[in-house]
Amino acid sequence: MKNFLPILLSVCLIAVSCSNKKEKNKTLENTVYSDSVNQVKASNNKQFVTDTYFKAYGVEPFWNVTISDKMITFKTPTDSIFTPHTEPIYAQDNNVKMYSLHTELAAIKIEIIQMECINAMSGKSFPYSVTLKYKKGNETEFTTLEGCGQYITNYRLHDIWALEELNGAKVNKDDFGKELPYIEINAAENSFMGTSGCNRIMGKLFSERNKIRFTNIASTEMLCAKGSDKEQEFTKALASTISYTINNNRLTLSNPDKTLLVFKKVD
Known about the structure:
With 267 residues, the protein is of the alpha+beta class. The protein contains three helices and 18 strands. The protein has helices at 4-41, 173-176, 228-239; strands at residues 52-58, 63-68, 71-76, 79-84, 89-90, 96-102, 106-118, 125-136, 143-151, 160-166, 169-170, 182-186, 191-195, 200-208, 211-219, 243-247, 250-254, 259-265. A nine-stranded antiparallel β-sheet has the order 4-3-2-1-9-8-7-6-5, covered by helices on one side. Strands 10, 11, 12, 13, 14, 15, 16, 17 and 18 form a nine-stranded antiparallel β-sheet that branches. The protein is elongated, with a radius of gyration of 23 Å. It starts with a helix and ends with a strand. Mean pLDDT is 84; it is low at 1-19, 24-29, 31-38 and 40-49.
């Protein structure tokens, strides 16, 4: 019996350790989705307001990094590093961003690559691969960590938006024959639905900070008495969008050449 107790104790410790790892990993994975949901809640509850636009984490050791317009925060179970936000350097040929941060206490380098990243422990897939290097104080060598990440869609996009301008011109219902186009954006699910004036539309949302793309756009195929040309112009403009701004209850969608669409928030 005496020989059996140490073995039993060892088994119990291993089981607790594995359970704790699974719980930590599950908590970290849920953080990305929770941040997005919480940002949506922010429109009705100020305690959830956050300006975090990117979140990444890794395991063994467990770590996470959050990037907002004001601060970049790096945490491990035993340490935390806070640095002011800095704009990343963009690679020319790929969707790669590199942050280089230096303070009196630490140095951090973060590389974010748009590439499928599989969590080694859970097998869950994320759209970005992240490499983080850091050193503190007088350390001469960087510690390198690998992980996965995801952009957090701006909660302010989560609303119903009615079209006001199309390619620089004011629009009204008569231009489309049936009704003014509108889109309803679900920021937590990165999806949208609405109407192009006559036909129903829906699709997916791709968002990176102030960048946005409307993808996988699907539409019904009803024949409309008038406005079909405007419908096609609207759908083409939506598919050509690359960036956005939100000011004075207006959502403005643009590409590098011009402003494409202006929507008004619908209460």
